[in-house]
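Folding Query — how this chain folds
Tokens — whole-number codes for backbone shape
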Amino acid sequence: MAATPHVPFHDPQSPVFRAHEGGKLGVHATQPLHDARDLSLLYTPGVAEVSLAIAADPCLSTRYTSRGNTVAVVSDGTAVLGLGDIGPLAALPVMEGKAVLFKHFAGVDAVPVVMETGTVEDLVETIVRIAPSYGGINLEDISAPRCFDIEEQLQERLDIPVFHDDQHGTAIVVLAGLLNGATVLGRPLAGLRVVIAGAGAAGVAVTRLLQRAGVRDIVVCDSRGIVSASRQDLTGHKDRLAATTNPRALTGRLAAALAGADVFVGVSGGTVLEEEIATMAPHGMVFALANPTPEVHPDVARRHAAIVATGRSDFPNQINNVLAFPGVFRGALDAGATEITEAMKLAAARAIADLVEDPVPERIVPSVFQDGVAEAVADAVHRLAPAGNQRNHPGSR
């Protein structure tokens, strides 16, 4: 049974609850239905011609149905950001919100799909069975390490993009911030010593994308300390992390990793002491991304770091996934891509970074409301989509 966290008093008259009254989504028709002729075109008998054409050539479904512009936002509610395992019903308002962001920022129609949790095989099989209705699958708030296996198996079984936003959306925006942060500080990205607190979904994806961008010295920490090949308690994805990170073979707790580090990326939700941040190299970067409470308060971090970013909107440099996922899916759908490749993720990060013409310590990523963000990301992703898959979709801009 899903955990029941402490919740605030339910006040139906508060602005928050009123904003969610009746849900945040609806269904609208894209074609008029005024008379019998319209009915005969949109439904019987006319629809039979379209159905038969699609039966003969399934690729036509992206042209003659909403599939080519529709993404399923799928969750079992086991790892909702800041709330944990709250179950599918409690996760539904979050998934509805995600769908609103898809539509507002990129014109992508997104459908929340929440389901009871189960084994990896249960969830994969369920998603595979509903996939024909959608042009892409956005996995959301599924606990690690299950999320890794679910995404991998879906990518193998489906011929549409599958994207776990908690992993890859976070990684894309973190990389965008680090690209501009390195520029501001006059430092080569490849030479940075990076510490990542958190070895779950976001931590793994951030590590992998930074490595692909050229960062060579990354140390990952979990709740027990540095993920190192010398540890005997590592399994699965942490074993793989240990094999490709920590080039100086550090051991010990987070404090040992932070000493002399240039960058701290927090995606764990834990707490980092000021005296630990103070041991980092001068003129460093602190990305304290836990929400709603950063691992270290931004005001404290600024005493020791040149650049500070959080996941919050009330501080400068918000590392927000909405900078990435709407444009990533817009570009992938428009290209008719069957997957979202690592090259597409790198291109998305660079596109986001390039939107900040003159980066400064207080502005290393664009605002989520800056004009053209989703369009720039979509264009970058579209250009990198495998050429053989590209085709025009009815949802194209």
